[in-house]
């Protein structure tokens, strides 16, 4: 690139057969103590390059005329930055996730360091915060005081570090979170991992059908599909579709009903992907029966499991029926929708030997294995697994 000597900042780059001479034009100006540069490429004569240079100089002059924002005399407190951080997260995260972040910050981190200026927070403060979390205890429903479980502390620590790392990056501070050991707890287990056997699941469905018929269809749907409760309560009658070859029925899962502090919201599923789950003819017939009982005809978008007011049902509506049905069926555990989901996962996996990816596809799980991210099991494989499972529970998928 050859500099054109008559005017600084104008360089002749090359000559184009059709467009003519190619010029690179550069203009610079000191603004608020910093060198600001603007660059532009133009085709044509030297006169055109000169006019471009003048236009760039005017743009820089207009920038220098704007009132400059003064650097803050002091850094904001962690409370102030946390408000900004939470407002930036609302646009990209699920509502429930944002509420969880807000709860952790309000109940754990901000009471300890919220009033501190951001530039005064050091590694020593974070080590003290880690010890503070280890010593915290919670009260159970029986009135017992117990330490938080390891998984819970890990969640508190993860959200806190995410805020502090973003703070260091935004305010150009040194990262005080590097190589810090998080809090630990003697209580390792926090999630109930109990599942039912095929015989126990069949007994439970028999009991629910006989004693609690008004919730039988939604319990049956959870048991034979493994859907999350929010996904079940977001289902509409139009989500039950017939396969193109008329081989059976499929349930389309694309939304989830979530109860937030602002009320009910219809959101994407946890993995943000629509998935199709094969269902037995019996389950499809039961859903069609309910549709006819409600007087609905054709493809209707009404909720399959609405509340008494016509809105979304809350998962707590199943607590008492499932608790009483569990006792009446002689089960040693109290069944919840999550137990039904884990049971489906466990029993299907026993039948899906060599077809783990088909199971992940139906459950809506995300695997760390790159192969599973690109894998999509075919409908015939998923249908064969589900119908085999339904057959073990009872004739045509019913107890």
Give the topology.
Layout: E1 2-3, E2 10-16, E3 20-31, E4 34-43, H1 46-65, H2 78-89, H3 95-113, H4 123-135, E5 137-139, E6 145-147, H5 150-170, H6 198-211, H7 216-225, H8 229-233, E7 240-242, E8 249-253, E9 255-260, E10 263-268, E11 275-279, H9 281-293, H10 319-328, H11 337-351, H12 356-363, H13 370-374, H14 379-393
Which runs of at least 5 residues are low in confidence (pLDDT < 50)? 368-376
Write down the CATH class of the largest domain. Mainly Alpha
Number of strands: 11
> Span between N and C termini?
82 Å
The amount of helix comes to 40-55%
Q: Might you state the CATH topology name of the largest domain? A: hpI Integrase, Chain A
CATH architecture classification of the largest domain: Orthogonal Bundle
Please give the largest β-sheet. Answer: 4 strands, antiparallel
For CATH, the homologous superfamily of the largest domain is named as Intergrase catalytic core
Counting DSSP H or I runs of 4 or more residues, the number of helices is 14
Number of domains: 3
Radius of gyration: 31 Å
Q: Report the structural category.
A: alpha+beta
Strand order of the largest sheet: 1-2-3-4
- Helices and strands, in order, run as EEEEHHHHEEHHHHEEEEEHHHHHH
Proportion of strand residues: 15-25%
Mean pLDDT: 80
């Amino acid at each position: 690139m050859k500099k054109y000597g008559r005017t600084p900042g104008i360089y002749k780059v090359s000559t184009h057969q059709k467009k003519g001479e190619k010029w690179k034009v550069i203009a610079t100006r000191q603004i608020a103590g910093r060198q600001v540069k603007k660059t532009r490429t133009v085709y044509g004569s030297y006169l055109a390059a000169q006019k471009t240079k003048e236009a760039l100089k005017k743009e820089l002059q207009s920038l220098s005329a704007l009132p400059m924002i003064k650097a803050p005399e002091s850094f904001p407190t962690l409370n102030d930055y946390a408000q900004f951080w939470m407002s930036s997260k609302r646009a990209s995260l699920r509502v429930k996730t944002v509420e969880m972040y807000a709860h952790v910050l309000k109940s754990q981190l901000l009471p300890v360091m919220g009033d501190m200026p951001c530039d005064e927070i050091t590694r020593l403060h974070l080590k003290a915060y880690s010890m503070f979390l280890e010593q915290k205890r919670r009260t159970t429903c029986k009135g017992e005081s117990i330490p938080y479980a390891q998984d819970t502390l890990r969640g508190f620590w993860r959200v806190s570090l995410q805020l502090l790392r973003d703070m260091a990056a935004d305010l150009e501070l040194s990262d005080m979170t590097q190589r810090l050991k998080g809090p630990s707890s003697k209580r390792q287990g926090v999630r109930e991992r109990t599942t039912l056997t095929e015989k126990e699941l069949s007994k439970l469905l028999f009991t629910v059908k006989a004693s609690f018929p008004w919730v039988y269809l939604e319990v049956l749907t959870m048991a034979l599909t493994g859907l999350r409760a929010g996904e079940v309560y977001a289902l509409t009658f139009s989500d039950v579709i017939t396969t193109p070859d008329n081989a059976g029925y499929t349930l389309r899962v694309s939304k989830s009903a979530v109860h937030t502090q602002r009320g009910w919201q219809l959101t994407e599923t946890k993995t943000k992907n629509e998935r199709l789950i094969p269902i037995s003819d019996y389950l499809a017939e039961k859903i069609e029966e309910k549709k006819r009982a409600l007087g609905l005809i054709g493809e209707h978008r009404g909720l399959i499991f609405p509340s008494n007011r016509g809105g979304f049902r809350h998962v707590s509506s199943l607590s008492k029926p499932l608790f009483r049905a569990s006792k009446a069926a002689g089960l040693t555990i109290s069944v919840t929708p999550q137990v039904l989901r884990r049971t489906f996962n466990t029993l299907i996996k026993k039948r899906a030997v060599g077809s783990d990816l088909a199971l992940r596809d139906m459950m809506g799980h995300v695997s760390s294995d790159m192969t599973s991210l690109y894998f999509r099991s075919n409908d015939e494989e998923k249908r064969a697994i589900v119908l085999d499972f339904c057959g073990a529970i009872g004739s045509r998928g019913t107890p």
